[in-house]
Amino acid sequence: MLALTAATLFTPSERVDLPLVLVEDGRVVEVTSCASREVPAGARLADFGDAVLSPGFIDIHIHGSAGHDVMEPDSGALPAVERLLAQHGVTSYFPTTVTAPVETILAALERLATAVEAQNGDPARIGLRARPLGIHLEGPFISHTRRGVHSPELLLRPTCKIFEDFWQAARGHLRVMTIAPELPGSAEVIAAAVKRGVCVSLGHSDADFKTARAAVGAGARHATHTFNAMRPLGQREPGIIGEVLTDSRLTADIIADGIHLDPAIVKLVLQAKGVDSSVLISDAISATGMPDGQYRLGSFEVEVKHGKCLYQGKLAGSVLTLDQAVRNVMRFANWNLQQALRPATLNPARVLGIADRKGGLVAGAEADIVVLSPGGEVRKTIICGQVG
Q1: Residue 127: pLDDT above 80?
Q2: Going by fewer Cβ within 10 Å, which terminus of the chain is more open, N or C?
Q3: pLDDT-derived band of residue 34, with 50, 70 and 90 as boundaries?
Q4: Residue 262 is among the residues annotated as catalytic for this protein
């Protein structure tokens, strides 16, 4: 048995001072305080002093890092990505595709499905690496007008046949799908995805308010990088952003790097969606954790300089890490650490329907824990009870 102590613990919904966390066989057995429970005899004690214990971060939108793209066939790519993620407190992630030829997407989905299925192996053998829990399909069912850097000639009209091909290639591990609801055929594909248990996320969209609201009625329940690659908010035509900000049925994620969104817009989204419905994502590409230079995003090269990832003058993902996003939220929105942890832990777990085992430091949950400084700097990451 492993016993963890620190100055503070955020579940994250509740605060526990001088916590005592007991871990066995990769799961949290008990969360209590040192004042009410002694460390069990024979337990291995890890005392983290003035640190804060938090659930591990969950990134539901990430294309790569450490010089690698999640769609590349190199067998060493995902392990490299996962080791870097763990260094930044991410214990679970959803590798995210970009628009590509259908054959390329299908092959990537098959490889990623294999990685998801393999992550349930021996934690000691896998080592300190973030675990892929499912796949996020971003593209090809997106708007030409709001495609960002996605290749226009490879965008597809949504059909249930193509969606089913993707679903079969992913062997049921498709967990998130970004779609533009104004596209012909989107309503049928949204319904098919919802039936399969996929979280349908509205994004890369030029939808008006009425169309976006109809998509929510059809089962969409999340929004992809809110404000980015979306029809602008208008005072008389609120569009998709107006729907995202005002409909309590929708959760919404943001790239809080201060580049994709002005800090004031980060604060606006967080105020509109609140501590319960906001999600932080990295949208990180292969350049994350690497020096400035040329890097791959899917099939094209992106120039990275001074924190900006650009392709033909357009933003193409980020080099943001989730721990930095948490600290940025504290600075941009004046949220305290406990509030800022929610969009990186419990909220994404709830969006993906895995809050019974991920995103919370409670008895029965998997022992994915981040040890933070009081200011939110990562000091250590624990995955499945394995201390790095």
Answers
A1: no
A2: C
A3: very high
A4: no
